[in-house]
C-alpha cells in the first residue's frame, strides 16, 4: 500500500492516491471479473411486484408463476399432411398389387368427419381431426386419383402421418416455469394452450445519471473541452432493449452536492441506480463520497480491461452500480456485469451467457488484467480485431459484432481458439 502523508502531496497523482486511501483503505485491492460477477448476482434479488397482462402484449416480460396447460395439445389425433385417411388393413394387399378405394367424405381443418367405413378413404387436410376408425394418413403425392377412386400402390403402417392427441403437451403439465422470458416462441406456445393473460414481474425501474461538466447534448454547439454525452444514449438504448423502465436524470455537474441530490432523486423512484463517470479518485470525482454519505460501497475496482473502475453498493437502500465514464468501458461493463445483475433483478432465472470457441485471426499479448476485445466474425469463420482497442474509441463497438475474452497474461497467437460473446446473445 502506498504510504502518503498529507504534507507530501506535491503532485496531482499523489493527491489522488491520498484521497483514495483516505476514503477506501482497500482501494488498491482488485478482484477478478468472475468473482465480481458472482458477488453481483448473489446480491441481485428479484423484485416482488407482479401484474397480470394480456398475452398479446407480454413480449420479453418475465413470468412470475408457473404456467400449467389446461388442455392437451393437440386435442385430438389429426393429420400431418394433405392426403387420405385410411384403414391400414385395407391397404395390406398393396404388398401384392395396387388397391383402389372410393372416397367417402372430405374433412377440412376445423371440421369433424364421420366414422370411416371399411373399404373407403376420407379426403383429409393438414390439422383436420382423424375420423373414427382411421389409423393412418397417406400423403396426396403418394397416390393416384381419378373418377374411379384413389389408387394406393404400397402398404402403410398404423400411425403414419398422424399427430397423436397430447403429443405436444398433456393437460395438467407445466409448460413454462416462473423466471422464464416470454419470447415469441413461448408466447405462441401459450396461445396454443388457450392462455389469454399471464402474470409477470413488473418492469424494473432504473434511475440513471451521467457525471461530468464536460458533457454536451447532441445537437448543441460543442464548446472547447466539451464532449457529446454518448453514454446517455448508449445506456438508455441498452436498458430499453432489456425491457427496463428508464428514469433518466441526465447530466450531473461535477459537485458533491449535485451528485448527492441525483442519488436521492433516483433512490425515490428506482429499483436500481446506474451512473457513469465520476468513478476515479480526483477532486472532481464525487460518486464514491456521495455513496459513502447516503449508503455503502461493497465493491470497487475489477481486474478487467476495459472497465477497471466498477462500483457496487446501496444508496438509501437502493442497489447502485457505478460504470466507468469512458464510453467503451461503460459499454463493456454494462454488457458483462450490469446486464446480468439487472436481468436477475427482473426475475429472470437464467442469466448466463454462453461463449463460443472461435478461431482468432490475430495475435495479442494481454496485460495483467482480463481483457474483452472488440472483434468481428470474418468470412473465413474466424475473428478479426478492431485495430484500436482504446477505451474511448466507441467506433470499435459499432464495428464489432462481439467480444473476445482474453485471460490476463495470455499470449494469443493467430489460429488459437478464444471465448467469443456475440452481441446478438446480449440483446436476445
Biggest beta-sheet profile: 6 strands, mixed
User: What is the CA-atom radius of gyration, in angstroms?
Assistant: 31 Å
Relative helix content: 10-25%
Gross morphology:
elongated
Topology:
Elements: H1 12-23, H2 33-43, E1 50-54, E2 67-68, E3 78-79, E4 83-86, E5 99-107, E6 120-124, E7 136-139, E8 144-146, E9 149-152, E10 162-163, E11 174-176, H3 184-192, E12 197-201, E13 205-211, E14 215-216, E15 227-228, H4 230-242, E16 245-252, H5 256-269, E17 272-276, H6 287-294, E18 295-300, E19 304-305, E20 311-315, E21 318-323, H7 327-345, E22 356-359, E23 364-365, E24 370-377, E25 383-385, H8 395-399, E26 402-406, E27 411-412, E28 417-422, H9 423-426
Parallel strand pairs: 5-6, 13-16, 13-17, 14-15, 17-21, 19-24
Antiparallel strand pairs: 1-12, 2-11, 3-10, 4-6, 4-7, 5-9, 8-9, 18-20, 20-21, 22-28, 23-27, 24-25, 24-26, 26-28
Helix pairs in contact: 2-7, 4-7, 5-6
Tell me about this structure.
With 428 residues, the chain is of the alpha+beta class. It contains nine helices and 28 strands. The protein has helices spanning 12-23, 33-43, 184-192, 230-242, 256-269, 287-294, 327-345, 395-399, 423-426, and strands spanning 50-54, 67-68, 78-79, 83-86, 99-107, 120-124, 136-139, 144-146, 149-152, 162-163, 174-176, 197-201, 205-211, 215-216, 227-228, 245-252, 272-276, 295-300, 304-305, 311-315, 318-323, 356-359, 364-365, 370-377, 383-385, 402-406, 411-412, 417-422. A six-stranded mixed beta sheet has the order 7-4-6-5-9-8, with no helix packed on it. Helix 2 packs parallel to helix 7, helix 4 (230-242) runs parallel beside helix 7 (327-345) and helix 5 packs across helix 6 (287-294). The longest helix has 19 residues, at 327-345. It is elongated and about 90 Å long.
Amino acid at each position: 500500500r502506498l504510504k502518503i502523508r498529507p504534507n507530501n502531496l506535491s503532485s496531482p497523482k499523489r493527491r489522488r492516491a491520498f484521497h483514495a486511501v483516505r476514503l477506501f483503505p482497500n482501494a488498491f485491492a482488485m478482484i477478478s471479473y468472475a468473482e465480481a460477477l458472482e458477488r453481483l448476482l448473489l446480491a441481485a434479488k428479484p423484485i416482488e411486484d407482479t401484474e397480470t397482462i394480456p398475452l398479446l402484449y407480454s413480449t420479453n416480460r418475465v413470468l412470475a408463476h408457473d404456467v400449467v396447460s389446461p388442455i392437451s395439445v393437440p386435442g385430438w389425433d389429426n393429420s400431418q399432411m394433405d392426403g387420405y385417411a385410411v384403414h391400414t388393413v385395407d391397404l395390406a394387399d398393396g404388398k401384392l398389387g395396387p388397391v383402389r378405394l372410393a372416397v367417402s367424405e372430405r374433412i377440412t381443418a376445423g371440421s369433424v368427419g364421420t366414422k370411416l367405413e371399411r373399404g373407403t378413404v376420407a379426403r383429409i387436410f393438414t390439422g383436420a381431426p382423424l375420423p373414427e376408425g382411421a389409423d393412418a394418413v397417406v400423403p396426396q403425392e403418394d397416390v393416384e386419383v381419378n373418377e374411379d377412386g384413389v389408387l394406393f400402390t404400397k402398404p402403410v403402417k398404423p400411425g403414419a402421418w398422424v399427430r397423436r392427441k397430447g403429443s405436444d403437451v398433456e393437460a395438467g403439465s407445466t409448460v413454462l416455469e416462473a423466471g422464464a422470458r416470454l419470447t415469441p416462441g413461448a408466447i405462441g406456445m401459450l396461445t396454443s394452450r388457450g392462455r389469454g393473460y399471464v402474470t409477470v414481474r413488473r418492469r424494473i425501474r432504473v434511475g440513471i445519471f451521467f457525471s461530468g461538466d464536460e458533457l454536451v447534448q447532441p445537437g448543441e454547439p460543442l464548446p472547447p473541452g466539451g464532449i457529446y454525452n454518448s453514454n446517455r444514449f448508449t445506456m438508455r438504448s441498452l436498458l430499453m432493449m432489456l425491457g427496463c423502465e428508464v428514469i433518466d436524470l441526465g447530466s450531473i455537474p461535477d459537485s458533491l452536492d449535485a451528485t448527492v441530490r441525483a442519488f436521492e432523486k433516483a433512490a425515490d423512484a428506482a429499483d436500481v441506480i446506474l451512473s457513469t463517470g465520476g468513478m476515479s479518485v480526483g477532486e472532481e470525482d464525487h460518486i464514491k463520497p456521495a455513496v459513502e454519505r447516503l449508503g455503502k460501497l461493497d465493491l470497487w475496482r475489477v481486474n478487467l480491461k476495459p472497465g477497471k473502475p466498477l462500483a457496487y453498493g446501496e444508496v438509501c437502500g437502493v442497489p447502485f452500480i457505478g460504470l466507468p465514464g469512458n464510453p467503451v468501458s461503460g459499454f463493456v461493463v454494462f454488457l458483462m456485469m450490469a446486464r446480468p445483475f439487472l436481468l436477475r433483478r427482473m426475475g429472470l432465472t437464467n442469466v448466463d451467457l454462453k461463449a463460443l470457441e472461435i478461431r482468432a485471426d490475430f495475435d495479442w499479448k494481454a496485460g495483467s488484467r482480463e481483457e474483452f476485445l472488440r472483434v468481428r466474425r470474418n468470412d473465413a469463420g474466424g475473428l478479426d480485431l478492431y485495430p484500436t482497442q482504446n477505451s474511448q474509441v466507441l467506433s470499435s463497438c459499432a464495428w464489432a459484432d462481439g467480444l473476445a475474452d482474453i485471460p490476463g497474461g495470455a499470449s494469443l497467437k493467430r489460429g488459437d481458439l478464444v471465448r467469443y460473446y456475440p452481441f446478438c446473445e446480449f440483446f436476445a
